[in-house]
Amino acid sequence: MVNIIEITEFEAPELDIYARKTEAQLLNRDKPEEGIFIAESPKVIERALDAGYVPISALVEKKQIAGEAKCIIERLSEEQLNEILIYTAESEVLTQLTGFQLTRGMLCAMHRRDLPKVEDICKNARRIAILENVMNPTNVGAIFRSAAAMNIDAILLTSGCSNPLYRRAIRVSMGTTFQIPWTFVNNSCSWPEEGIDILHKMGFKTAALALSDNSVRIDDEKLMQEEKLAIILGTEGDGLATETIADCDYTVKIPMTHGVDSLNVAAASAVAFWQLAGAI
């Protein structure tokens, strides 16, 4: 049986999780086992369900109960329907919630999961990406979307990165944050010293995207023929740390024209993934 509760006022406490909780509050660093995230739109919610994430509650525009949200509600098990609450409201109430009009009528709060170890998600991988302190959730989401499209097997993030389950990152990624295995490298070891050492022991060659006198072109024949390759991308503005570049097997550049010396990290990732993984 579907537990549908109608909300008539934007200030209703039932909307706190969707309208007033910050990303830090949702993440719940003090009690990570209680952390949650918000998935937006039926398509993204469906990808989260496909990946095994467990719903807590949903917020649906009233007319979408029998519309675009219907397929999501119908796929929930009887047990899930007994445990979760589905809140609904008219569009006049929900449009006060920033961005709701972009969600195609549905939001879903879901439990986070324990993160896997680096070794577990990389053991069968050939091409992985590592994000070093990429702080903008829009860039993180865009990188995940490119990774899913271009045959990247897993993504590692350093502790300075925006969380891939932040609401904006999920939305920009179109839910591919649920499809690409990922974890924070600092959960298993320090970065870059221990992290790169672990990758080397697993058979990966490491490629830092950075400009230097020793950079090779991204279409370098030897680079492209590496059996296992870790593509490392740096933070917005400053790029990769000097020690990270020094520890890598390759320093790689994307040839450019008109005096342009760098791309946004999300754009650079798409080029790198296509060249080094998409063509495999």
Automatic annotation (TrEMBL):
Q: Name one GO biological process term.
A: methylation
Give a yes or no for keyword Ribonucleoprotein in this entry. Answer: no
What are the protein's UniProt keywords?
Methyltransferase, Transferase
Q: Which InterPro entries match?
A: Alpha/beta_knot_MTases (IPR029028), Ribosomal_eL30-like_sf (IPR029064), rRNA_Methyltransferase (IPR051259), SpoU_MeTrfase (IPR001537), tRNA_m1G_MTases_N (IPR029026)
* Gene3D superfamilies documented for this protein: 3.30.1330.30, 3.40.1280.10
According to the entry, every stretch annotated as the tRNA/rRNA methyltransferase SpoU type domain falls at 128-273
Spell out where the chain crosses the membrane: none
Q: Does the keyword Ribosomal protein apply?
A: no
What name goes with this protein?
RNA methyltransferase
Gene Ontology molecular-function annotations:
methyltransferase activity
Entry's SUPFAM superfamilies?
alpha/beta knot, L30e-like
